[in-house]
């Protein structure tokens, strides 16, 4: 998987704005667009909202700078959208409608009529991705999905291009950590971000590695999800739940990581 098809596909789109989260998928689209069009014809746009962890925004800034691409970080107002704030199972639809509309408007104002996202072929068959419909309704391009490129294809191409973030773990938005039905607020998202930061600090101090770290907000209580090896290593360490309680949760448990765990709960 050498990425040639992706570069050729993007070359045909002309001046391109990339909805850039800082994750591996949108980063590959951004890097491929630079190869196809040159950095002057590419714009990175990151939605700067309460649902984006500060560490992810910092990563996005760093990657865009490394690629020599102009980078805009407009504020977005998902929290003002009742369908998003209510946190039902279509939350991502309302989020993406708001975010991608803002990104498209900002991009057009700067002379970039086309917008692409990092939606990949795996995302397209995931039943828990209502946000994809929002992007389709707005007419954004999804080159990875269009070309049938999976997450592993993305990583393979990025490794082949020597991109240092090729194996960066997935980092969904902070709202995805909150159990459906619990309203999304700035305070809710900030508590999750504080708790995850506390967990990462704790792991570093203990010398325990976990590629995946999630703090799931179950409504006052939290479930910390780590890689199985880390869960085993820390199963009787009471200081980890204590660190999460200090971040604002009443109680915390530790469990093995499961991608999209809250999507699989009934309700």
Overall description:
The protein is α/β, with parallel strands linked by helices and 267 residues long. The chain has two domains: 4-160, HUPs (Rossmann fold, 3-Layer(aba) Sandwich), CATH 3.40.50.620; 174-264, 2-Layer Sandwich (GMP Synthetase, Chain A, domain 3), CATH 3.30.300.10. The chain contains twelve helices and seven strands. The chain has a four-stranded parallel beta sheet with strand order 3-2-1-4, with helices on both faces. Strands 5-6-7 form a three-stranded mixed beta sheet. α2 (24-37) links the parallel β1 (16-19) and β2. It starts with a helix and ends in an 11-residue tail after the last strand. The mean pLDDT is 94.
Secondary-structure topology with pairs:
Layout: H1 4-11, E1 16-19, H2 24-37, E2 42-45, H3 54-67, E3 71-72, H4 82-85, H5 91-109, E4 114-116, H6 121-124, H7 131-138, H8 143-146, H9 151-160, H10 186-206, E5 213-217, E6 221-226, H11 228-233, H12 239-246, E7 251-256
Parallel strand pairs: 1-2, 1-4, 2-3, 6-7
Antiparallel strand pairs: 5-6
Helix pairs in contact: 1-2, 2-3, 5-7, 10-12
